[in-house]
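Lab notebook, page 48
Experiment: co-folding of the full assembly
Goal: obtain a model of how the components sit together before planning crosslinking
Operator: M.T.
Materials (sequences as entered):
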Amino acid sequence: MRASSWKWQLKFAPYLYISPYFLLFLVFSLYPAFYSVYISFTDWNGSKAKAFIGLENYAALFADSRFWLSLWNSVVIFLLYVPLMLFLALVLASLLNANWMVGKGFFRMALFVPNFVSVVAVSFVFVLIFNTQDGLLNNVLRNIGWIGQPIPWLESPWYARISVALMVLYRWLGYNMLLMLTGLQSIPKDLYEAAYVDGASKVKSFFLITVPLVKRIALFCTVLSTIGTFSLFTEPFILTKGGPLSSTLTPVLMLYSESFEGFHFGYGSAIAVCFFILMMSISFIQMRLFDDKH
Amino acid sequence: MRKKGWSLAVAACMSASLIVSACSNSNPGEAGKSNEGSKPAASSEKVKLVVWIWESAKTGLDLNMDDFKKQYPNIDIEFQLMKSTDLYQKYLVSSNTGDALPDIVALESTNLSQMVQIDSLLDITSRVQPYKDKMNAYKWEDATKDGKIYAMPWDSGPVVMFYRNDIFAKAGLPTDPQEVSQKIRTWEDYYEAAKLIKEKTGVLMYGDSKTNSSNRMFESMMWQRGLWYFDKQGNVTVDSPEVKNVADFLVKMQKEGLVYDARANTDPWGNAIKDGKIATVVGGSWHDAIIETQYSPNDKGKWSVAMMPKWSKDDKYTGANQGGSNMAINKNSKHPEEAWKFIEFMLGKESSQVKMMTKAGLFPALSTAYSDPAINEPSAYFNGQPIRKVYADSLKSTYPLAYGSDFPLANKLMTDVWAQVFLNNAPTDKALKSMADDLRQKTKRK
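Observation: model returned without errors.
Model output:
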């Protein structure tokens, strides 16, 4: 009797222990996700009545130039910061991994700080920095004589994208650096010693040993950054509200504004569903492309 | 072994409680039912009303809370503070789940119609009858759907022109409000004054962003002529030639460099006020507090208030409205009677409204409050001028116009029109036409 109850416990207890997560996941993630798919087939302004309209939302969405623009914006912002961020992250990680570096703990900490500061608070600081009339950035640039006229950081489409990209870069550089650092630390030291014996310079061994061996980590960072860029919300929401001329509109920002400002929940849900499918496909392709076995 | 069994039990309890709490979260309406008030409250029973509101509006109600408690000792009020934009979203969600909370919501006029459309507010048509003629007429428009009224008007935002006397004087313009109103009667006069002020003092006429405009100035100018994004039938009319005239005027002001480039009611804009870089603010009456307390407290005596310019000298309506709020009752509220008592006490009573006007800067929509002596009280900051008198006069000549349920969307799209004009050099008629088409398609209007 005792033995069998012990067995029973051994078999089921683990499931019971992990059940809270799955229950929460079911109630707060899976159910809303499927409900959202259902809503995407309806015309719903938030009141009780939902009208089933089939694929009309999707048809309207594919014809909506703003949706395509939001995807294009994400691609542009991605290209503006991700290559730069990955390179900087790797360089910084290498520096912090080097034996001669002093104050490693401090620099690791300092670079990681943006990750746990509230992004809303940070965004408001960036609004002050990017302010055209008397913002910090324009004042500095003017004082060192780089610019005559103030740069419209948040008022012209390209500068607005650059501003958003800069802010995202600031926020995620430390996180990616930390990931890279773990990658670096898994590279055996004797590889570098062998390269040194063979007469390779520091720069050469960085590009021939470090870069190829952190490729997998870099892939992981890229996938995360892709998803992160397409789902950007807080930064453009506070910096530019998606403007000017929707140049910093991202799919998630559009989803929010259609659903919660326009009360077009069916349309917003259609965006969510398309967005989900798109992200799955992109991640899948990226995994395939970078996978050595294929 | 014993320990194992114990922790198993804990785990089981935890997951069970999670399920329960999760369920009750997804349907708080059910949970609320068991607590209190399943039967109508008797007069001796204490009733608690939950009010959703934002900070600046609550400040007004606080002034009257002592009197309210004296008259209704059995009604407890709990204020739940949030940003107005969050309020609409939250209310939408809770009304959908049949939640009885909140009992009362404060709603800005700009978003009222949108909230009326979702059928979650209580029909108060019969209750507001005594106030139909006492409130500013235009306030009812957005509160009405299919002939039924769903909200009680609170305050209005009569648009006036705040101006800097010292800068006007330096430019050789009159400073006395009467004379200013005579000198700057039309928008053409306003434009001439802007050129003069820039030439003589280097100061710009007003602040607005080219690519991130809040459209408030443009909307006020439309409103005073009875123009809007939509007409009375709800059709899109923003591509009409009259609207283009208004837009062209503002484009001319911008292109000739007479406007300080900053979105109205943001910090860069407020700093320009503080630094004396802007000569006028054409905006709702609530700007008095923004100028006096928020951005420019040291400029006592430098600001005055006059009527806003109009389109042509013989226009019948001259004033416009900007913003303003209302209060409504949740359809699911368990205490609609008490909720109405609260609203009536706060918004329907002259003494309550006068207090909010004098101490919180909320200019009442209740027009019987305008006969109160407080209307003629001089303002120390505004040059000893009885500024509320100007507001009341402005309201008398305000066109009865509704914001409309798709105003938030139209306002958003309009910002892009300016950006098209200033960044891509698009002609205004083209930019307005494409915005109108967008609006028609998105709202399924004509």
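Interpretation: Strands of chain A lie at 42-43, 51-52.
Next step: discuss with group before ordering constructs.
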